[in-house]
TrEMBL record:
The protein, known as: Alkylation response protein AidB-like acyl-CoA dehydrogenase
Gene Ontology molecular function terms on file: acyl-CoA dehydrogenase activity; flavin adenine dinucleotide binding
GO CC annotation terms, alphabetical: cytoplasm
Domain Acyl-CoA dehydrogenase/oxidase C-terminal: residue ranges: 244-393
SUPFAM superfamilies xrefs: Acyl-CoA dehydrogenase C-terminal domain-like (SSF47203), Acyl-CoA dehydrogenase NM domain-like (SSF56645)
Acyl-CoA oxidase/dehydrogenase middle domain segment(s): 136-231
Protein family according to the UniProt entry: Belongs to the acyl-CoA dehydrogenase family.
CDD domains in the record: ACAD (cd00567)
Cofactor names: FAD
Domain Acyl-CoA dehydrogenase/oxidase N-terminal: start-end pairs: 16-131
Presence of keyword Amino-acid biosynthesis: no
Keyword vocabulary terms for this entry: FAD, Flavoprotein, Oxidoreductase
A biological process from GO: fatty acid beta-oxidation using acyl-CoA dehydrogenase
Source species of the chain: Nocardia fluminea
Amino acid sequence: MTFTLTPTYDDNPRLQELVGALRDYLDGELAEYEAGLGLARDARYGREVLQPVWQRSRELGFYGIHLPPEHGGQGLTFTELAALKEEVGASPRMFATSVLGDMGGPLRIGSIFQYATAHQLEKYLLPVLRAERACCFSLTENDAGSDVRGIRTTATPDGDGWRLTGHKVFSSAGPFADFSILVARMADADGTPTETFSTFLVDLDAPGCTVTDGDTPMSGDHIEADIILDDCYVGPEQLLGEIGQGLRIGLGRVTVNRLLHCPTALGGARRALHLSVQYAKTRQVNGAPLGMLQSIQHRLADMAADYYAARSMTYDALAALDAGHRPRTEAFLCKLFVAEKAFTIADHAVQIHGKAGVVRGGEVEGLFQRLRMFRILTGSSEIQRNGIARELLLT
């Protein structure tokens, strides 16, 4: 893998064409749409603003592009999907994450098709692929983050169905979603919680289900929701998979998901490096470009080295995944290294930009916030280190 800030994918004509079309859409039509809205990065907006992006992205073939042809996708390899996710991460567009279906769309449901019944496909999943419905994933609770077995939301038997009671937090895309893929702890008939977990498809407009604004993350994006359940009934047709498969469904693709989050962060790091290079070329200091200072040159060199190393190891692991291997240790390594180095790159970018890098609402400041969050989200760096050590010591 060669070093470049504008990957070309000459060895894969299909991917080269897709990346080119995606860049054109992000920098052309989507940019114009966002400009017409005039929204600040931390603005609140409703589903009516996002749905046109979902629908247009579907028309262009990007929405759910990773899925097999029978579901309207192009059956991309993991490496090809990662390349597209990197472009999304490198884009300054507010709604870039909606284009491939990461904001309540196909990227949220791709892993659950194998568990869905015909009824669930027709009512829940296929409408998501058609950009008609949206979903969120509800696993996290205030006292159950990395420790998923700390979940307190319970499903108590009621006839053929169950009554759900609990409080989910950080349900990304929850403000725009129609239903939630929700993991709960099963309870006995008398309401006593057990150690069994199951997954349900919960309609967010059902009696006993309330969606409220969640905590606003440091990025300023208003995309999180709390899902509050108070004796909310779900029928047997809403059980996803079998009783007891909740954690398998919720965490079953953790290796794949861990790897596929890395390209988005790599895209952000690439954008931060690109902006820093351009700023160093154009910013004048004492009558000369900022980039003439050796201290700035060394920062840029370190940023480039970190980006190249992080990207190379990520795509190496993705190639192993495409070859049929299960790169569990590599996934831990990639998430740790990419998270730490991407944030370091963003930190250098702020330093290079000086005052321009710390202005609220600026692009560099936004990248810094997003990449700082990546060290926590989808498993903190400490969790990744635990996983690496466990693999080393027990394998």
